[in-house]
């Protein structure tokens, strides 16, 4: 076969070329070898596999070149694809030609164990490694599945501004910035804008970054995270919960369908994941959750917000995601709908994931009453001037409506089975991390 007829392929397509000679642009992850063989671990951004150079089959020059390659050198390899049952990918390439594209210096992330801080200082390079590769591919599926789901449900995507004057989720964790002499905040949520959108388009979702100056250093908090916030006109809370669980299960199904290899690389239990697609999820009132916790020796009283141990216990108790409904009004946002029969709780729900992943969705029905919301805004000490437009939505044809917010990185962490949320975003922002 002449050079011109050799197809250039990507590793992921190797199974279609068994027995054929192909050319692949790749990077060298690792290598090992003996006097007679060099084994090159290759990656090209689509998959990982092994290239084998046998001294007996190639020129001495090529064998020496392969033996001396440094980690992360970029190259074109040419060779024949074989099935290989011993590798997790199932295929390898017998290399007959090698061309260096870009030399590599001494690469800092070597095959030995490195500390997490070091890896995240080198995140721009660490992205090339197996765990980030698998995790962020799954993130990509969750993003794609989000668009698919909401498109098929008749939603339109509405882009909310990221610089705002309002602080709907409370004033304690705002990032403030100067906006031509006046204060602006990086958006905590797109919800208020989504509510305006729902009155115009019936069903909308926002999907963008949210910023919270969270001082708490936990494995679930980022200061910049991505949130999906659907908002539905003429929809009460129970219908919203049904939509939430269908969306949640849809995302898991898509990952199971499309990311088999990545789930294996991360050693995620796929049967367990599949069990989370069985609907409906249990609904437990906040009142009952408190009782359940107290009966199990938790030192909690009615009125407190749940911390991580309580959330972990509750979801594990049901072995599946669980909605905790109707939280105390005092610990929830100003816009949540009052309960028709009680003035101490609101029509809200948090979806808690099992295995210690905690809250992934927070949502509620929205109050529709102009005077009540105005009083709430005053009570919270929020700047009324910033909320005039929001109150307008209650002046001109207010309707029942509900919505929720799903934290993308919490979902990625849960689906991939990662320990820490920083793995779930390409470049995490946390209290002590602003670069790279
Ligand atoms: O419960 P939260 O604060 O709700 C809202 O922002 C509402 N406006 C949503 C709505 O009804 N439209 O946040 C929603 C979700 C949480 O359940 C969590 O998954 C995620 O956003 N989240 C965070 N994720 C990472 N780091 C943080 N600091 C987060 N804070 C919230």
TrEMBL record:
**Pfam families, per database record:** tRNA-synt_2, tRNA_anti-codon
Q: Just give the chief location class.
A: cytoplasm
- At the top level of its lineage, which domain of life is listed? Bacteria
> Which GO-annotated molecular functions does the record name?
asparagine-tRNA ligase activity; ATP binding; catalytic activity, acting on a protein; nucleic acid binding; transferase activity
Q: What PROSITE patterns would the database entry show? A: AA_TRNA_LIGASE_II (PS50862)
Which reaction is this enzyme known to catalyze?
tRNA(Asn) + L-asparagine + ATP = L-asparaginyl-tRNA(Asn) + AMP + diphosphate + H(+)
**Cytoplasm as a keyword?**
yes
- Please state where this protein is localized: Cytoplasm
Q: What is its EC number?
A: 6.1.1.22
* GO cellular component terms, A-Z: cytoplasm
Q: A Gene Ontology biological process annotation?
A: asparaginyl-tRNA aminoacylation
Describe the location of the Aminoacyl-transfer RNA synthetases class-II family profile domain by residue ranges: 136-436
InterPro entries recorded for this chain? Aa-tRNA-synt_II, aa-tRNA-synth_II, aa-tRNA-synth_II/BPL/LPL, Asn-tRNA-ligase, Asp/Asn-tRNA-synth_IIb, NA-bd_OB-fold, NA-bd_OB_tRNA
Q: Tell me the keywords, alphabetical order.
A: Aminoacyl-tRNA synthetase, ATP-binding, Cytoplasm, Ligase, Nucleotide-binding, Protein biosynthesis
Transmembrane stretches, start-end: none
* UniProt record similarity statement: Belongs to the class-II aminoacyl-tRNA synthetase family.
Subunit organization: Homodimer.
Q: What is the name of the protein in this document?
A: Asparagine--tRNA ligase
The record lists the organism as Fructobacillus ficulneus
The organism's taxonomic lineage, starting at the top: Bacteria, Bacillati, Bacillota, Bacilli, Lactobacillales
User: Which gene is annotated as encoding this protein in its UniProt record?
Assistant: asnS
């Amino acid at each position: 076969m002449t050079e011109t007829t050799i197809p250039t392929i990507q590793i992921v397509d190797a199974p279609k070329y068994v027995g054929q000679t192909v050319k692949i642009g790749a990077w060298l992850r690792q290598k090992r070898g003996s006097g007679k063989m060099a084994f090159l671990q290759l990656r090209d951004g689509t998959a990982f596999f092994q290239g084998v150079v046998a001294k007996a089959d190639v020129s001495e020059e090529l064998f020496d070149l392969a033996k001396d390659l440094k980690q992360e050198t970029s190259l074109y390899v040419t060779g024949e694809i074989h099935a290989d049952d011993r590798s997790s990918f199932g295929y390898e390439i017998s290399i007959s030609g090698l061309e260096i594209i870009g030399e590599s210096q001494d690469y800092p992330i070597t095959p030995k164990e490195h500390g997490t801080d070091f890896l995240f200082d080198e995140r721009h390079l660490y992205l090339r490694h197996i765990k980030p590769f698998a995790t962020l591919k799954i993130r990509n599926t969750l993003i794609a599945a989000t668009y698919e789901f909401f498109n098929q449900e008749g939603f339109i995507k509405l882009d909310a501004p990221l610089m705002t004057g309002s602080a709907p989720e409370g004033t304690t964790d705002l990032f403030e910035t100067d906006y031509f002499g006046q204060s602006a905040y990086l958006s905590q949520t797109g919800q208020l804008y989504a509510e305006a959108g729902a009155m115009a388009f019936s069903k909308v979702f926002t999907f963008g970054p949210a910023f919270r100056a969270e001082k708490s250093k936990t494995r679930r908090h980022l200061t910049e995270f991505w949130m999906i916030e659907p908002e539905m006109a003429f929809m009460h809370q129970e219908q919203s919960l049904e939509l939430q669980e269908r969306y949640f299960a849809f995302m898991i199904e898509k990952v199971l369908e499309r990311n088999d290899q990545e789930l294996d690389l991360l050693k995620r239990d796929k049967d367990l994941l599949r069990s989370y697609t069985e609907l409906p999820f249990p609904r437990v009132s906040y009142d009952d959750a408190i009782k359940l916790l107290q009966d199990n020796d938790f030192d909690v009283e009615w009125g407190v917000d749940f911390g991580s141990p309580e959330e972990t216990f509750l979801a594990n108790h049901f072995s599946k995601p669980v909605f905790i409904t109707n939280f105390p009004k005092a610990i929830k946002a100003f816009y949540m709908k009052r309960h028709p029969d009680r003035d101490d709780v609101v029509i809200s729900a948090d979806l808690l994931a099992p295995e210690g992943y905690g809250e992934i969705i927070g949502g509620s029905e929205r109050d529709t009453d102009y005077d009540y919301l105005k009083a709430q805004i005053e009570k919270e000490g929020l700047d009324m001037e910033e909320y005039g437009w929001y109150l307008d939505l209650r002046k001109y044809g207010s309707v029942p409506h509900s919505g929720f917010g799903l934290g993308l990185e919490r979902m990625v962490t849960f689906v991939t089975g990662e320990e820490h949320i920083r793995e779930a975003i390409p470049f995490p922002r946390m209290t002590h991390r602003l670069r790279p």
